[in-house]
Amino acid sequence: MSDKTTTAEQVVSRLQSGMTLGIGGWGSRRKPMALVRALLRSDIGDLTVVSYGGPDVGMLAAAGRIRKLVAPFVTLDSIPLEPHYRTAREGGAFELMEIDEAMFMWGLHAAANRLPFLPVRAGIGSDVMRVNPRLRTVTSPYEDGETFVAMPALRMDAALVHVGRADRLGNGQYLGPDPYFDDLFCEAADAAYVSCERIVDTAELTKEAAPQTLLIKRHTVTGVVEAPNGAHFTSCAPHYGRDEAFQTTYATTPWPEFAARFLGGDEQAYQSAVREES
Amino acid sequence: MNDVTRAPLLAPTRAEYCVIACAEAWRDNGEVLASPMGLIPSVGARLARLTFSPDLLLTDGEATLVRPDGTTEGWLPYRQHLTLVGGGRRHVMMGASQIDRFGNQNISCIGDWERPKRQLLGVRGAPVNTLNNPTSYWVPRHSRRVFVEKVDMVCGVGYDRAAGARYHRIPRVVSDLGVFDFATPDHSMRLASLHPGVTVEQVREATGFDLAVPDEVPSTREPTAEELRLVREVIDPAGSRAREVGS
User: Fold this and answer.
1) Given B75, B116, B128, which is nearest A101 (Cβ)?
2) Which PANTHER family match (chain A) (predicted)?
């Protein structure tokens, strides 16, 4: 059994410009921010990003790394509109495939199940069809004859997710209230990288937690990175809540200044700069 | 219990009429999930649950189904929430940056979608909501900027674009001025009730399309004393509802 532990830098070294990259979490919740920060330190760009968008999208957009975004929304939750994403969109910075939250989910399911598409009762009648002229519909072959959107599989080259704990083999555990779609992201990608608050022995995972907290299975995982506070400033329940004060700093500081202050060094430097800030 | 709450009740505020109008959206809904977005709809949903719609399910805003006293009664992570939408056992009240006379709703962007003048949230779940479960809307500031002739990006589907959508229904739109529905032959928006103190002229002035107005427009109903007590002492004792709608 192979030890998949690695570092954020090594993960990024296996990514390339032009890739389709899935990012787990939801809005400003349990985003793999340490991996995103490592990505920002590289010169990888021209990315197609697939995300229930939060500051992951905001930062990559602000840094000009996105060629195309696939998302139903981008938000910081407690700050509804993501300022850097807004600036990028209003400047026409990248292509957007704007789809509904359920369409997105069924696109992940299709990819995870190696299906070309799944029928979804969503999108028809809305301008999702106008702004995505490549979306096709499919008519039920049964008596009902209803027409659905044929949501194409959201297959990805690589997925980045963050969970509470993992073992060295890639079994990932979430201890918060919502798994989001992180397991699906891993199943829908050719390679999946899991960062976590802490790497523990396999036996430790279920010592005090039920087996159904084991969200991510090792056969879907390529690499495991220990990244304490790695979802910062997004939430990672029950380990920590969202750092609202820092998120406000992020949202109100011009991007070049924010990047210079917090993203100039490595992850350790980032975490120290955050501690000094609070 | 302090003396203030035992004193004769103060007259309902505009925000409290809005709470009642939102709560009424969930009357006779049965055992479905009430999904309020925005503060006043949240107060309204809890009021409905505590009074005339005791079978409603409510979440804590995250992945937990909770009783009004905070007791956990279920688990509803996003993946199950989206599946529940497909089953239709839910009545959501969404916000609307723009809404038109047939109930098409926009929360995505203002201006040309290719390069918006103002990027907003994105379509979120509006397309799936409107095709699968009853979807009502809440607009805290009724104006011509919101009630428009044509929305810039159709997120929630309106009646004129819902042909063949078997589960499409927009029970009501609640604003700070009144309650609106689509009970007209062509399913265009109709003034259903005015909040006390608001005139038809005021609503027409603040609406950017031709609104159907019946000859007799009722008033939004009065809250009962018990409802006012629940809103003021139990559900929203901090009075945050006044921040969403002033008096």
Assistant:
1) B128
2) KETOACID-COENZYME A TRANSFERASE, SUCCINYL-COA:3-KETOACID COENZYME A TRANSFERASE SUBUNIT B-RELATED
